[in-house]
């Protein structure tokens, strides 16, 4: 195009490459466009036009607006060189050393480049920072809130740059002068930062390596961004401008700047906010169609139940289409998008039981709150670290710090193991009650203890069919236990560090685990290697949850973000930021549309998965929230916390009349209603028992669990 030709011709003339200039001019003339005459006049007569020249960048390869292979791909960003006029701009993807240079009114190209390259004077860093701070604090209210987001990432990078270049005393005084100005939710990060005082310390520190390599994301309106840019260019403040370009990703949106409340709701994670692009992918959040089969309509269902709480002698007829014709949810994934296990006869029996129980389910609401039954673990000197309850509420499992896994029967039915092989061979396999006969009465007890882990057990999960149990531990393994024999079947080794959480898919067969190595892994019970590895979090993966349709997995992390992953291809399809501390609990609403998350900041945040937006904030807890659960029909959200309370929230009201219009989705201008207190339906104190697990039975009785602490 014409501008580029003009710029290149200028460059050739200045470099005294007359021959090349002549050749290029002849070529250009062939295009029927005479660029001859005085080239310079073209450029000067239109100061608003920026021209781009590819400049050798030290290694001798020309670097224009070019990608240099997958390893150094950068997001294209809007950049302006300090010498260009206010209305010229170019995007560039390349390193900070001016991948593209603006040539205008013939400035000296090499001077522009060196401006990017030089290390700033260490003694001026405090001046640079306080100058910017003064500018932001004196700017208009509407811009101040947005630009204040720059303080923290700039502070960290300037400090790290000083430490890295071994200006230790300057770094120390810089830290002492400005660390008090940062937002309170960055205190933990600043504590880590203050211990890095030498270049050597930076090598081993993973958090800071992440901070240096992953771009900190800020979402700023175009007006505020222009204001910042103009200020930095007038002040010739290259040091800060370099950091903005090299280490920050500024997600610019058109429209009104956001208010302090809107920004505060969304920031606080280790790497800033999520880019808007990160939440654009389509997510199939609908539910899969239930398989269809006949439900026997007889009322003698209270008769003898066999060992798994399933009715005896009633075999529903095989799939009979049309018994329960639900329409396919338009937002649901295709039925065969991921392979799911076939339903066994026992699963069908269980589904029938489930439907019968559901018919007697209590409809909850503000006028009809659930009863809560609390299971307190007394004298749990082993240190209770994890709890799970089977879907039919017949068994409860505890994982303990002494590395044991303990399973209790909650019903009058005792837990029994299968007989030994020799005894099994004597049984008549054709008899009606063969399932009853294979159980060994001599082994019946209320409690079974499973030994095998060599460290505290941090996560437990029953399979939906109640035949298996998963446990994960500090020893880096996930173990699969049989609830028929109460022995360990498999030890899955993949994590090299503690595994903080594990969970079975709602359809069985698949399970997910997440740990200190910052990745979540998807497994199948019959593979000893993981099927998918979900990598992207910048700190420990602290909790994991399957979406009700099993096509997605949510992970919460100590980097204060929640990510939603696609099981099919391993892609991250949502990143939610807004919590101010590590995430410790996740719950999907039964209809699959919403996600509730709880963290150490004592807030429950509600997210609309389809639009990728925060839609609510429930304040009330005063300590970490370790348990979240929606009632069976999604009317009520229960939260359990270290503050020894269970709180019930009105989920219907929280999710009605959501403002999820296209504008909100495009800019992230969320308006959270300040109505936590209206949504809170009840607070229930325990004597001195932190709540670590919640579970709604099939009839909507709420079960809660925790270990009594005598402090």
UniProtKB/TrEMBL annotation:
InterPro entries in the record: LisH (IPR006594), TFIID_NTD2 (IPR007582), TFIID_NTD2_sf (IPR037264), WD40/YVTN_repeat-like_dom_sf (IPR015943), WD40_PAC1 (IPR020472), WD40_repeat_CS (IPR019775), WD40_repeat_dom_sf (IPR036322), WD40_rpt (IPR001680)
Q: Which PROSITE patterns match?
A: LISH (PS50896), WD_REPEATS_1 (PS00678), WD_REPEATS_2 (PS50082), WD_REPEATS_REGION (PS50294)
Subcellular location(s) of the protein: Nucleus
Which SUPFAM superfamilies does the UniProt entry name for this protein? Answer: Taf5 N-terminal domain-like, WD40 repeat-like
Residue ranges of domain TFIID subunit TAF5 NTD2 in the record: 120-248
Cellular-component GO terms for this entry: transcription factor TFIID complex
Pfam (any one): TFIID_NTD2
Residue stretches of biased makeup (Basic and acidic residues): 60-80, 318-329
Alphabetical UniProt keywords? Nucleus, Repeat, Transcription, Transcription regulation, WD repeat
Instruction: Indicate whether RNA-binding appears among the record's keywords.
Output: no
Q: Where is this region: Disordered?
A: 53-91, 295-347
Where composition is biased (Acidic residues), the residues are 295-306
**In which ranges do the WD repeats occur?**
377-418, 450-485, 492-523, 534-575, 576-609, 618-650
Its main localization is: nucleus
Q: Name one GO biological process term.
A: transcription initiation at RNA polymerase II promoter
Under the subunit heading, UniProt states: Homodimer. Component of the TFIID basal transcription factor complex, composed of TATA-box-binding protein TBP, and a number of TBP-associated factors (TAFs), including TAF1, TAF2, TAF3, TAF4, TAF5, TAF6, TAF7, TAF8, TAF9, TAF10, TAF11, TAF12 and TAF13. The TFIID complex structure can be divided into 3 modules TFIID-A, TFIID-B, and TFIID-C. TAF5 forms the TFIID-A module together with TAF3 and TBP, and in TFIID-B with TAF8. Component of the TFTC-HAT complex, at least composed of TAF5L, TAF6L, TADA3L, SUPT3H/SPT3, TAF2, TAF4, TAF5, GCN5L2/GCN5, TAF10 and TRRAP.
PANTHER family linked? TRANSCRIPTION INITIATION FACTOR TFIID (PTHR19879), TRANSCRIPTION INITIATION FACTOR TFIID SUBUNIT 5 (PTHR19879:SF4)
Return the similarity comment. Belongs to the WD repeat TAF5 family.
Indicate what this protein is called per its UniProt record. Transcription initiation factor TFIID subunit 5
Q: Which gene encodes it?
A: Taf5
């Amino acid at each position: 195009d014409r501008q580029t030709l003009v710029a290149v011709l200028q460059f050739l003339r200045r470099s005294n490459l007359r021959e090349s200039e002549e050749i290029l001019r002849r070529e250009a003339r062939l295009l029927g466009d005479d660029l001859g005459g005085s080239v310079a006049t073209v450029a000067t007569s239109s100061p608003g036009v920026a021209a781009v020249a590819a400049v050798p960048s030290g290694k001798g390869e020309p670097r224009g607006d070019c990608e240099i292979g997958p390893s150094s791909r950068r997001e294209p960003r809007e950049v302006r060189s300090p010498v260009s006029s206010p209305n010229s701009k170019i995007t560039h993807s390349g390193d900070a050393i001016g991948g593209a240079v603006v040539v205008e009114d013939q400035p000296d190209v090499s001077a522009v480049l060196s401006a990017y390259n030089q290390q700033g004077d260490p003694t001026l860093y405090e001046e640079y920072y306080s100058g910017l701070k003064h500018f932001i604090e004196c700017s208009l209210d509407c811009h101040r809130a947005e630009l204040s987001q720059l303080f923290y990432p700039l502070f960290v990078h300037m400090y790290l740059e000083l430490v890295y270049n071994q200006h230790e005393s300057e770094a120390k005084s810089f830290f002492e002068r400005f660390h008090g100005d940062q937002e309170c939710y960055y205190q933990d990060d600043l504590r880590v930062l203050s211990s890095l005082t030498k270049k050597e310390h930076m090598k081993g520190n993973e958090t800071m390596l992440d901070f240096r390599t992953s771009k900190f994301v800020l979402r700023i309106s175009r007006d505020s961004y222009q204001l910042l840019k103009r200020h930095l260019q007038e002040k010739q403040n290259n040091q800060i401008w370099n950091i903005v370009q090299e280490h920050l990703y500024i997600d610019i949106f058109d429209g009104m700047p956001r208010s302090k409340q809107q920004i505060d709701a969304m920031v606080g994670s280790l790497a800033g906010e999520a880019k808007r692009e990160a939440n654009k992918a389509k997510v199939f959040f609908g539910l899969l169609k239930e398989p269809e089969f006949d439900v026997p309509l007889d009322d003698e269902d209270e008769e003898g139940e066999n060992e798994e709480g399933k009715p005896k002698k009633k075999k529903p007829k095989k799939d009979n289409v049309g018994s329960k014709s639900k329409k396919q949810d338009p937002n649901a994934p295709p039925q065969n998008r991921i392979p799911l296990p076939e339903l066994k006869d026992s699963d069908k029996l269980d589904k029938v039981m489930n439907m019968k129980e559901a018919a007697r389910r209590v409809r909850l609401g503000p006028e009809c709150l659930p009863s809560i039954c609390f299971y307190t673990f007394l004298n749990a000197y082993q240190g209770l670290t994890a709890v799970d309850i089977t879907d039919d509420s017949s068994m409860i499992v505890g994982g303990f710090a002494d590395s044991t896994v303990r399973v209790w029967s909650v019903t009058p039915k005792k837990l029994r193991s299968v007989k030994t092989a020799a005894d099994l061979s004597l049984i008549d396999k054709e008899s009606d009650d063969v399932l009853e006969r294979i159980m060994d009465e001599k082994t019946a007890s209320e409690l079974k203890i499973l030994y095998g882990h060599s460290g505290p057990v941090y996560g437990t999960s029953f399979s939906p069919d109640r035949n298996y149990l998963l446990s994960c531990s500090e020893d880096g393994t996930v173990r699969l236990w049989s609830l028929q024999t109460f022995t360990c079947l498999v030890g899955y080794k993949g994590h090299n560090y503690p595994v903080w959480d594990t969970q079975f898919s709602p359809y069985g067969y698949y399970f997910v685990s997440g740990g200190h190595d910052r990745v979540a892994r998807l497994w199948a019970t019959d593979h000893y290697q993981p099927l998918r590895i979900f990598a992207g979090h910048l700190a420990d993966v602290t909790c994991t949850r399957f979406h009700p349709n099993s096509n997605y997995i949510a992970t919460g992390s100590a980097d204060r973000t929640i990510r939603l992953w696609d099981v099919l291809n391993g892609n991250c399809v949502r990143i939610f930021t807004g919590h101010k501390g590590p995430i410790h609990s996740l719950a999907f609403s039964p209809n699959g549309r919403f996600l509730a998350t709880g963290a150490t900041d004592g807030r429950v945040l509600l997210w609309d998965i389809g639009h990728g937006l925060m839609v609510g904030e429930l304040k009330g807890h005063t300590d970490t929230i370790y348990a979240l659960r929606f009632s069976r029909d999604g009317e009520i959200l229960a939260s359990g916390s270290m503050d020894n309370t269970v709180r019930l929230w009105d989920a219907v009201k929280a999710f009605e009349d959501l403002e999820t219009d296209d504008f909100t989705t495009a800019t992230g201008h969320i308006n959270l209603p300040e109505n936590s207190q209206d949504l809170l339906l009840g607070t229930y104190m325990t004597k001195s028992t932190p709540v670590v697990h919640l579970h709604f039975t099939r009839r909507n009785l709420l079960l809660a669990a925790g270990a009594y602490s005598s402090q």
